[in-house]
């Protein structure tokens, strides 16, 4: 069983109200081989919602905020924790998450300047899953998985 980002499975849950359907991932869900989640929706954030990126707070810690500085760290942490709880209940070993996202990004995320530039890093959910022994991939890594 895989855990997958709901937006990749065709659910309109992205910050802008849309999705980025990946046919392979959508088919995994249809076949019952994957469960689709959206950490942001799990935390109660609406869809659509403000665009967020991981930025460095004045105290040096990472936080998730909008371009105008509104802090959504609490919600993103809550969404990550709820996602992990679901993963544990269904004994997930692998996740396929949306690349670049402040929740789901794995290896590369937006750099916090809201300019579309990327940097090495992990979204809050991806990082928590990895710390708990779950292998995390993005939609760009499907060739590495034997689906």
TrEMBL record:
<protein>
    <submittedName>
        <fullName>DUF523 domain-containing protein</fullName>
    </submittedName>
</protein>
<dbReference type="InterPro" id="IPR007553">
    <property type="entry name" value="2-thiour_desulf"/>
</dbReference>
<dbReference type="Pfam" id="PF04463">
    <property type="entry name" value="2-thiour_desulf"/>
</dbReference>
